[in-house]
Amino acid sequence: MKKVTYFTLLFFIVSNTIFSQSIDDSFSEKKMHKDLEVFKAIRLNANSGLYKYRIKQKIDSIYTWADREIDVSSTYRDFYNIICQLTDFEGSLHNNTNFPEKLRQSLKNETSGYFPYPVKWIEGKWILNYEKGEIPLGSEIISINNEKIETIIKNLYKYYTTDGVNITGKAIGINYRFSKYYRFHYGLQDSYKVSFKSKKTNQIQQITLKSIGFIDYYKNFNNRYSKPFDESTYRDFGIGEKYNFKKIDPTTSILTVNSFAIGGNAESPEHHTFVKYLDSVFIKVKESNIKNLIVDIRRNGGGTDPNELVLYEYLTDRNFSENKTAWVSFQKIPFLRYIETKVPSFLRPLGVIKYNKYFKQEFPINKDGKFYQGPLSEDHTIRKPNKNAFTANIYLLISPEVASAGSNFGSLVASNKNTVVIGEESAGGFYGHNGHTPISYILPKSKIKTTFFVVNLEQYVIEKTNQIHNRGIIPDIIVSQSFEDYLDHKDTQMNYVLDLINKNNKK
To answer: What is the pTM of this model?
Structure first.
């Protein structure tokens, strides 16, 4: 009994000293180099998106940078930031890098060191998005602790991934987690010397703010000034909130689709309900002789197939499929010993048999080490326009929140000749993305979790001169919320498109 107790206690001590108890604790260069080596090997062998937006020389160059950066790094946080930079550089919004659960919990227990107030990107400036603090609401932030806000924001980009070299989407994450991201990059701070410019005086002023804790920052965020307007950006949608339709006037209607997370697949009851709803909507649109349809997907961060494809059947006059090509880097999942799972390592080869069988069946065609989907894949099924498809004027509203299945749908609609795209560049790519199948690995020394999606997709879009291969969906007309509308909680983009339709109707 004593031996068992001793062994249990020893295991507890060892397991709790495998990695740091604080992200600021020291972490040896030897462990950093080991994990970097594993991270790179996983990327090279498993991640089909590694060279999607970066040529080999660029990828080699950033790994050379990472090696050198380790030589001047000393803490766990330093290494985490290196891995985040590598993750972001690949250019996939489905990439993710996370601390181990124990460290994530330790951050929540920190009672000081955090910047106190939420910020927001408005009219090309970072402003204070809080009404009851020491700095006036809407003041433009010039610098924090003697560093320009532009430099700070660029340093925080790495924590919120987007497709290609898109940066508009990064504002979504920074708006929400500015204080946490600042802590990740710069460490805990006792206080914050802020230079700002208020709208009233237009003069640069300075103030020193006392830091607060993790939980207190998120309390302030939940009381942010913009909450009445942007609350839906930072929460999940209920079943009744995911889509709706309303008629504005005899010739104009709005179809809002906030999410494609509508059931697990084509067999789910929720999906069938969605299909029936769409059919009733577009029958009504046809019978009402609607000439202008506003399709609002500004809050749509994605979801499950085939919801976006079924909707597009009602908005097109062309045949299409989910993608033109899709491929993966392997037919057998590599580096099983690092896979995130509770299954013991010696049993993992048995556990992945069905997954490896799936990859071999779904991606049977080997072309230069890339395994492509076969022509009989469901993803290549040719879909036809619905008999009630809308073919008059479409006004597609997009934003930096649009991603994954949302951006796939947006790209399809943007390919239409009868569509005008209005809003801000999406986080998801126009021509393609890495998606469909996630896989997570745990680095052996740091226990950092790295997640990416393994299928490299080329979307079924029509090439357009204003769409760039390493960017999100570029609007035909760029419209952002104005500062005045921010103060009044007004929807600048919706008001713009309604005015545009009125003007076009008069013509």
So the answer is: 0.93
